[in-house]
Amino acid sequence: MSTDLELLAAYKPVIMQDKKEPFIITAMGCTIFRETKKSDSFPKREIVINKKEVDFAIEYAIWYDFDIQHLYELEHVWVYVDYHGRVIKVEASFHGKFLNMVDLDNGELILENGTHPVVYAQPGKHALVPDPRVIRVIPAWLESCQEMAGADGVLVQDMFADQIHTDEDLQKMTETYIKEVFGFKPSMEFVPFTLENEKLMSWEELKQSIPDRVNKQIAVIKDYFHK
Fold first, then answer.
1. Is residue 36 part of a domain?
2. Which residues contact 45 (CB under 8 A, 6 or more apart)?
């Protein structure tokens, strides 16, 4: 396990966040792929390991307690490493899909200290892009942080449907809470957020903790309206 933790720390991504971003990353759930296999945390995709070039890939499932439009968020970075320990490809999640993380001007990887991918988070929404210029072409990127804040209430993914529950009242409370407490105007100035190594964990550990994390925030929201 210690070897795995050292590996996870060695390739941990640097997330560039807006200076006014109201949410922080509180955990990364990690999976090391040494062969082609379907992702458990991003079930719509298979992580393909071309053994001629790739020794392993690390999936970082990035946890936020909130998205600016709904309760809780999970984004992903995939780092592909060759047999010499060099990063040869980086992908990251973008609104349910994924993009290659390369410099838009020269197509090269963007790495800090040679092994840490640098990616940019859409303000409030946290979709990941390789260049902050891309954010301005995303529909409603600004409105989602202001008048559209909280619009989606509590999201309940199928894998947690038996442990996270919502209703019409909670949906309305969550929308109002997010808009009142977290609504903001992005600065479009970005600063690095690097998660402490002790907050790296296996995906299974993070997955097991998610219902408790979400239900704690639901309790905070309910308290907000019943002071």
1. yes
2. 38, 39, 98
Provide the pLDDT for residue 208: 96
Contact status, residue 119 vs residue 28, Cβ threshold 8 Å: no
Dihedral, 75, 208, 7, 43 alpha carbons, nearest 10? -50
Going by C-alpha positions, the residue among 27, 70, 42, 96 that lies closest to residue 156 is 70
User: In 37-181, at which residue ranges do the beta strands (DSSP E only) sit?
Assistant: 37-38, 46-47, 56-67, 70-81, 87-94, 97-100, 111-112, 116-121, 128-129, 153-154
Q: 150 lies in a domain?
A: yes
25, HSE (Cβ side, Cα atoms, 13 Å): 30
The domain in which residue 215 lies consists of: 2-220
According to the model, what pLDDT value does residue 152 have? 94
Rounded to whole angstroms, the Cα distance separating 113 from 151 reads 39
Name the residue type at position 131.
D
> What is the per-residue burial (b if ≥16 Cβ within 10 Å, else e) of 195-217?
beeeebbbbeebbeebeebbeeb
Query: Which residues, other chains included, contact 211 with Cβ-Cβ below 8 Å and sequence gap of 6+?
Result: 160, 163, 164
Tell me the average pLDDT across 55-72: 97
- Whether 226 maps to a domain, the answer reads no
Query: What pTM does this model have?
Result: 0.95
Q: Does some domain include residue 227? A: no
Count of other CB atoms within 10 angstroms of residue 174: 26
Integer angstrom CA distances of residue 195 from 25, 51, 110, 113 = 7, 30, 18, 16
Q: Using DSSP bridges, classify how beta strands 46-47 and 153-154 pair: parallel, antiparallel or unpaired.
A: unpaired
Number of domains making up the chain? 1
